[in-house]
Amino acid sequence: xxxxxxxxxxxxxxxxxxxxxxxxxxxxxxxxxxxxxxxxxxxxxxxxxxxxxxxxxxxxxxxxxxxxxxxxxxxxxxxxxxxxxxxxxxxxxxxxxxxxxxxxxxxxxxxxxxxxxxxxxxxxxxxxxxxxxxxxxxxxxxxxxxxxxxxxxxxxxxxxxxxxxxxxxxxxxxxxxxxxxxxxxxxxxxxxxxxxxxxxxxxxxxxxxxxxxxxxxxxxxxxxxxxxxxxxxxxxxxxxxxxxxxxxxxxxxxxxxxxxxxxxxxxxxxxx
Length: 272
Known about the structure:
Blueprint: H1 14-25, E1 29-35, E2 50-55, H2 62-71, E3 74-80, H3 94-103, E4 114-117, E5 120-123, H4 125-135, H5 145-168, H6 173-192, H7 205-221, H8 235-246, H9 248-255
Parallel strand pairs: 1-3, 2-3
Antiparallel strand pairs: 2-4, 4-5
């Protein structure tokens, strides 16, 4: 059974290598738009740019932002306010739900996050990541495509376990981190093996997805109410996180005024 322990991406065609180098040198430019009124929730690309739309939180939108940064894209990052009402009131998220039927004309299956790029309109976070990955050569080589799919889909399940607890029962994260998390991180360590990144020798959109989940777990474990250190017991995963964070595009994004460390979740969550 192959789990990625010793896999190395074969060299791609020269054109692919040149494209990757060009993308690595490109610097992303972004315009952050806080959509606090319905007219700011776009139904077409903003100023002709790639446009990503999500709540004004990290959540499922954060790996998409990372991918566009690594791509060196010129993009609009629209962050939707969850108002106008507070959680538990009829006005909570009402602006979005009132706007959503209008989006049905522009997007099949409209939901957050969604992305607009020319005539392309997509929902579903993993679909968006795959689209960006294919467009900007962030999918690795064909020989590792199955691992990209695995990491994206497995991370969706893995991330949901902690995100659900953050919304419903944050204190349950402590026994989760003490017990269940250990085995899950063992699996991720096994998949990583001796590779620098999860799928091959170069970063892909899948790495950005699992990185963000690990980043969230690191923040959660640091909270006094949780106070565990399970992730710290996995130096290979910590080194993987360091490599992602050391990428020049990520460094530039972290230092920009556009990066959000938090909130991880929306305002009705127990832990944000």
